[in-house]
Design a protein that fits this description.
mainly alpha; two-stranded antiparallel ribbon; 8 helices; 2 strands; 2% strand; binds iron/sulfur cluster
Amino acid sequence: MDDHRSSVPWNTRALWREANTSLATTVRQNRPGIAESRRQARQIKRLLESTFPHMDRLCRRTCPDCTDACCQRAWVWADFKDLLFLHLAGIPAPGRQLLDPQGGHCRYEGPAGCRLERIRRPFVCTWYLCPAQTQRLRKEPAEMQVIQTSLRQIKALRQGMERSFIWAVT
Ligand code: SF4
Ligand code: SF4
């Protein structure tokens, strides 16, 4: 368990601040060169926002009766692509990494669910469909198709965004 905890990036206040400051500076100093990655980030934002009404609807139908909330046992954190997306799209990063060295589960999990706006959550939190949600979506194949297509496009765009950013700044 300790090994896993220490593998979470930027899991102290200081490291999180340093990562965000450094990324903000790199973005500010390379504006013309990172035009492509910023375009990809805007596209990701549009696609994410298009999935949120579907996700909200799904959550309204499944989460209120859930007895094993995923966020209470989730072992997830913001990775480089998540932070990069937020900085390129001009969205404020969460105040802290989701997990800290002592944390057993996500610090943003609250009594009424996640305390972060969807757009600020790590992509894995949008990408993950729990078994109850998957089961429900199987009865609505058109809805399933819309969500899965968007998630696949976002995943590919995130890779492209990271690649073009690294290419531009190194
Ligand atoms: S997403 Fe699924 S596992 Fe998570 S709280 Fe909702 S119903 Fe439960
Ligand atoms: S950020 Fe929100 S959705 Fe993601 S694990 Fe934490 S509480 Fe759950």
